[in-house]
Specification:
- The protein has helices spanning 2-21, 40-43, 56-63, 84-94, 105-108, 120-135, 151-157, 164-180, 193-201, 217-244, 264-287, 292-305, 317-323, 353-357, 379-392, 415-433, 479-490, and strands spanning 33-37, 98-102, 139-145, 186-191, 247-253, 256-259, 330-333, 337-342, 359-362, 398-402, 439-445, 464-466, 475-477.
- It is α/β, with parallel strands linked by helices.
- It has one domain: Glycosidases (TIM Barrel), CATH 3.20.20.
- β10 (398-402), α16 and β11 form a beta-alpha-beta unit.
- It binds 4-nitrophenyl beta-D-glucopyranoside.
């Protein structure tokens, strides 16, 4: 009897051990893919080499250098433009399944327009990377637009605020499909439209840093992006999918919003933030239109402010049909979580998007920090956001297109970064196996230290460190390279998996 009891206790505790404490010893699915990411302006440098045109980041860092924390620019950055041979060798050594990078639009089309000149040197640069990746059996995940708009498009018609952008972007995308599509299986149209529109047109934290019409321009930007994305998706679908056999999507950024308390009002606040950030773009792609809570709240405030119509533009019936369903998977860029607390509606006054949302946000003081004030280490938030996306958007395939950790640099033994990756990847396993979320790929941001937008070179996300004071820009592996290499090779987070 005693023996039986003991055996039972032993058996149940081993089950507990297996299912909970040791859940990390499960292997990633055999077809799960691992990669690393960069973005053109952040790594390429060679800002005016070989016929490249000026883009809005060249323009911003040159004309308003004080906006960048260390007054730096991406003029040289990691000089990836001149170092592709070495970088390809590093990618091969890492053993990644794919390399996620973006095209510099103005390097291919200096004016931005397809009826302007095509810069052969730029085309050659990317074509070479693609054929070298192919030789090494590394797949390419290409983002068409990671924020570096050709300056001429900004000057000619206001870039993302004008419907003219839609056709101009679609023509550029079509050129990219024609030039590179036979060797690209994953296309991402836009990187993080939420950050791009909010930071570009509401709070001046990204180029073009125009803040003329808060509460208005950011929604126009989002509207234009969604239409340009849909048009591009439809073109790919109709003309290229059959022969090129690739897949196409958009990369959306979001925090997980954790209710600040069990109060139902805080639950509502957290859900509302998710809808205003992720839903702003995901809802139209999956269901055809903006989330109802955005439509209702922005319309109500706009009317009270004296606008005839909502500051959130409306889609026509035709546009809804065109946008709905334009994704083959969802790219998720996720770094951190935020606490959301109910906030009473703010008095009517000047429009502002944060007033439309009206949620108080904060970070839990127990969460470990990083070099970026917004980035706290909250690994379980990734599992929660993945499950929320599954439940809210009909279980789409999810590619984690960016996830990573920043430090101030100069740390080769980057144990905090290793810890971040291990804990976030552990939650990817839980999302896949315990919650049934269809996550098929994971991307570490970033392959190497680079130009972190208005933070300049003060926040480093790289697996490889780059010496920015050496003209050769040598790369040195941090300890996290070894960690990630092992994960990729073994498909496992611990010494041995089941
Ligand atoms: C992403 N936030 O941006 C971008 O895609 C990358 O270019 C960038 O280097 C990386 O994340 C690290 O910042 C974000 O404030 C910028 O929550 C800011 C936030 C999130 C993502």
């Amino acid at each position: 009897m005693i023996l039986q009891k003991l055996l039972f206790v032993f058996y149940t505790s081993s089950l507990f051990w297996k299912n909970n404490l040791c859940a990390d010893n499960r292997k990633f699915p055999s077809d799960f893919k691992f990669g690393v990411a960069t973005a053109s302006y952040q790594v390429e440098g060679a800002w005016n080499a070989d016929g490249k045109g000026e883009n809005i980041w060249d323009h911003l860092t040159h004309s308003q250098p004080h906006l960048v924390k260390d007054n730096s620019t991406g003029d040289i950055a990691c000089d990836a433009y001149h170092n592709s041979k070495e970088d390809l060798a590093l990618l091969e050594d890492l053993g990644v399944d794919f390399y996620h990078f973006s095209l510099s639009w103005a390097r291919i089309l200096p004016t931005g327009y397809t009826d302007g000149p095509v810069n052969e040197a730029g085309v050659k640069y990317y074509a070479n990377i693609l054929s070298e990746l192919e030789k090494r059996k590394i797949e390419a995940v290409i983002t068409l637009f990671h924020w570096d708009m050709p300056q001429k498009l900004q000057d000619d018609f206001g870039g993302l605020l004008n419907d003219t952008f839609i056709d101009v972007f679609a023509s550029y995308a079509q050129l990219a499909f024609r030039l590179f599509g036979s060797r690209v299986k994953y296309w991402i149209t836009f990187n993080e439209p939420f950050i791009m529109c909010q930071h570009g047109f509401e709070n001046a934290r990204k180029a073009p840093a125009i803040t003329k019409a808060p509460g208005i321009d950011l929604y126009t930007c989002g509207h234009v992006v969604l239409k340009a994305h849909a048009k591009t998706y439809r073109i790919y679908d109709k003309l290229y999918r059959k022969t090129q056999k690739g897949r196409i999507a958009i990369a959306l950024d979001t925090d997980w919003f954790e209710p600040a308390s069990a109060d139902p009002k805080d639950l509502e606040a957290a859900e509302r933030f998710l809808q205003f950030q992720f839903g702003w773009f995901a809802h139209p792609l999956v269901f055809g239109n903006y989330p109802q809570v955005m439509i209702d709240r922005i319309e109500e405030r706009s009317k009270k402010e004296g606008f005839k119509t909502s500051r959130l533009p409306e889609f026509t019936k035709k546009e809804i049909d065109e946008i709905k369903g334009t994704f083959d998977f969802i790219g998720l860029n996720h770094y951190t979580s935020t606490l959301a607390k109910w906030r009473e509606d703010i008095a009517i006054g000047k429009p502002e998007s944060s007033k439309d949302l009206s949620v108080s946000v904060s970070k839990d003081s127990s969460w470990e920090g990083s070099a970026s004030s917004w980035l706290k280490v909250v690994p379980w938030g990734l599992r929660k956001i993945a499950k929320w996306i599954k439940d809210t958007y009909k279980n789409p395939e999810i590619m984690i297109a960016e996830n990573g950790y920043s430090d101030p640099g100069g740390i080769l033994n980057d144990s905090r970064r290793i810890n971040y990756y291990r804990e976030y990847l552990s939650n990817v396993l839980k999302a896949i196996y315990d919650d049934g979320v269809n996550i098929t790929a994971y991307t570490a941001w970033s392959f190497m230290d680079n130009f972190e937008w208005l933070e300049g070179y003060t926040q480093k996300f790289g697996l490889y460190s780059v010496n920015f004071s050496d003209p050769e820009r040598p790369r040195t592996p941090k300890s996290s390279v070894n960690f990630y290499k092992n994960v990729i090779r073994t498909r496992c987070l611990v010494d041995r998996c089941l």
